[in-house]
Amino acid sequence: MRNQILKAAAEEMMTRGVKFTMSNLASRLSISKTSLYEHFASKNELIYHVLAIAIADIKSQDEEIYANPSLTLTGKIHALLKVAPKSFGPISNRHIYDDLCHYYPEEFKLVQEFRGQQIDRLSELIARGIELRVIRPVNIKVLRQIVRSATQELFSYSFLSENNMTFPDALAAMSDILVLGLKNSHEKEQGHV
Fold first, then answer.
1. Which of 183, 147, 153 is nearest to 165 (CA)?
2. In this protein, which residues make up the domain named HTH tetR-type (predicted)?
3. Is there a contact between 151 and 64 (Cβ–Cβ < 8 Å)?
4. Rounded distance, CA 32 to CA 151, Å?
5. Which of 5-19, 62-76, 79-93 has the lowest mean pLDDT?
6. Long-range contact list for 95-98, CB < 8 A, 24+ apart?
7. Domains of the chain (ranges plus CATH)?
8. Distance between terminal CA atoms of the chain?
9. Distance of alpha carbon 167 from alpha carbon 153, whole angstroms
């Protein structure tokens, strides 16, 4: 039952963000609120566990990429930038990050700490690529901020909806731009624009 509650809570978060009520969740599951509280002491605890599952899912995907011997260094960077949670499907409520920050700061801290660890590890991989001269020298601090800001902005429901994209689609496009750049490697640059 606990897993069913977590899955239903994730579905509520996908549609209503974190503003869903325990009554909404109980109705979705056709159970009483008392039954919910037998498994989770509070809505905060429930949200924490949903986020923890999504983070564990992303960590697992990241580890597979880091450990994959068939991927080149740039291939790993490209793949890491595209990782999105698969466990519950994409959460498409545009206010979820803001709502987590304002109403669930402890749970939001879990997400922020994980994103920081993820970006730290990615930065180390990029620095290694620069040392090996596989990647041209770039300002890693600026790149870190670009990745952090871009992933948060790409999560915007309105952006995704207006452009008929999913969050994974947007991450893939961002990854292509960051890893492959803007210059067409097949064309010779001619003249000024």
1. 153
2. 1-58
3. no
4. 37
5. 79-93
6. 95/17, 95/157, 96/13, 96/17, 96/18, 96/155, 97/152, 97/155
7. 52-180 (1.10.357.10)
8. 62
9. 10
